[in-house]
């Protein structure tokens, strides 16, 4: 699934970031998004359900299925959150400067006008 080009993608991150740094970033991102009022309440049910599933003992394969469920839920939760909210939190977590809200769009750079040819004799 292609990401919105304005959203800093996960997991590539910083050039020297490794698996565990990206895992920590993902966990921090989920925690921040859980506390953000702009994220839908129903989307916040996913991480809570995953934690409950993780804590309830089951008779399945073992820790691998729990880890897979946690990863899947974290991925789905971030994908269900608004792109601009995710981008804002990712930029803050990576200590990147915020995107300026005053930056004009491409449509604002167009100046409309009318052209009237001048008489060369005057």
Kindly summarize this structure in a few lines.
With 122 residues, this protein is mainly alpha-helical. 50% of the residues lie in helices and 0% in strands. The protein has helices spanning 19-35, 41-55, 63-80, 83-93.
Q: What is the mean predicted local confidence, pLDDT?
A: 76
Name the poorly predicted regions.
1-14
Backbone CA Rg: 23 Å
Distance between the termini: 62 Å
Largest sheet, described in full? none
Proportion in helices: 40-55%
Query: Count of helical segments?
Result: 4
Shape: elongated
Any idea how many domains?
1
Secondary structure tally: strands: 0
Q: Which structural class do you get from the secondary structure elements?
A: mainly alpha
Q: Beta-strand percentage? A: under 5%
Order of helices and strands: HHHH
Notes on the protein architecture:
With 122 residues, the protein is mainly α. It has four helices and no strands. The longest helix is centred in the middle third of the chain and has 18 residues. It is elongated, with a radius of gyration of 23 Å.
Lay out the secondary structure.
Elements lengths: L18 H17 L5 H15 L7 H18 L2 H11 L29
Task: Identify the notable features of this structure and list them briefly.
50% helix; mainly alpha; disordered N terminus; 122 residues
């Amino acid at each position: 699934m292609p990401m919105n080009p304005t959203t800093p993608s996960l997991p590539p991150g910083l050039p020297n970031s490794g698996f565990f740094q990206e895992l920590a970033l993902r966990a921090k991102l989920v925690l921040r998004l859980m506390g953000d009022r702009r994220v839908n309440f129903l989307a916040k049910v996913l991480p809570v359900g995953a934690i409950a599933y993780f804590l309830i003992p089951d008779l399945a394969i073992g820790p691998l299925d729990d880890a897979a469920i946690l990863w899947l839920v974290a991925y789905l939760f971030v994908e269900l959150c608004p792109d601009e909210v995710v981008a804002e939190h990712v930029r803050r977590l990576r200590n990147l400067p915020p995107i300026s809200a005053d930056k004009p769009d491409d449509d604002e750079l167009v100046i409309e006008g009318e052209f009237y040819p001048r008489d060369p004799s005057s």
